[in-house]
Amino acid sequence: MKYKMKIRSLLALTFFAIFPLFGQTDLPFAGEVKEIQENIQKTWDNSKETIVFTGSSSIRMWNDLQERFPETQILNTGFGGSQSSDLEHFLDELILDYNPSQVFIYEGDNDINSKKSPRAIIGTMEDILEVLQTKNPNMDIVLISAKPSISRWHLKRKYKRFNKRLSKLASRTTGVRYADVWTTMLNKRKLKRDLFIEDGLHMNSKGYDLWQEALKEYVNNTL
């Protein structure tokens, strides 16, 4: 495992070293990422401790993150449609440029829906962790489990397999923790259906209340 991780790390770092030669403007979501950067620069105080929340639309639509966790400056760099491979392309722009003390990552939801295997997603997450920890060894990393939803409930077995692998990845990686939001959104084995907006995928305030409760023990509480 250590040998494989070293190979992944070398490949990831090599990729990031040569990637600027090709530019990022041709990448999917480059426009969204640029807009996120521009909006953050209007309000971000780089003299203050910063926590970054990033990932797909479940993060992007969490509009009151700062109000729910007022003790520390929160930056929301999530964007709709994001998969783990997209985050990997934009680690500097979405995380590292802000030198955060903590980062909360929500990826895997769209990956599963796009028919990627849990094993393949975890491979990408390993690469992401290698780059983040190489560039910022002191950063506390929290991996948020994939959530259940009405529209993707038919994929629940794949989601559960992914979450199991994600939890194991966190447990074997120093400086990384796993936060479970899957369980709190269930009533025993049944999905709490009143947590979602009309599309059956994204959450309403009740859903984010549960996320806040599940994540509050991690925010500002580093390893």
Q: Could you explain how this protein is built, in words?
A:
Helices cover 44% and strands 13% of the residues. It is of the alpha/beta class. It has one domain: 3-Layer(aba) Sandwich (Rossmann fold), CATH 3.40.50.1110. Strand 6 and strand 7 form a beta hairpin. Helix 1 crosses helix 8 and helix 8 runs parallel beside helix 9. The longest helix is centred in the middle third of the chain and has 18 residues. It is globular, with a radius of gyration of 17 Å. About 5% of the residues have low confidence.
Short recap of the structure:
It comes from Flagellimonas spongiicola. This protein is of the alpha/beta class.
Number of domains: 1
As a percent range, the share of helical residues equals 40-55%
Q: Order of helices and strands, N to C?
A: HHEHHEHHEHHEHEEEH
Low-confidence stretches: 14-24
State the separation between the terminal residues, measured CA to CA. Answer: 23 Å
Beta-strand proportion:
5-15%
Supply the number of helical segments: 10
Provide the residue-averaged pLDDT.
91
Strand tally is 7
Spatially, the strands of the biggest sheet line up as 2-1-3-4-5
Q: What is the CATH topology classification name?
A: Rossmann fold
**Structure class:** alpha/beta
CATH structural architecture: 3-Layer(aba) Sandwich
User: Which outline best applies?
Assistant: globular
- CATH first level: Alpha Beta
**CATH homologous superfamily heading:** SGNH hydrolase
Please summarize the sheet with the most strands.
5 strands, parallel
Radius of gyration: 17 Å
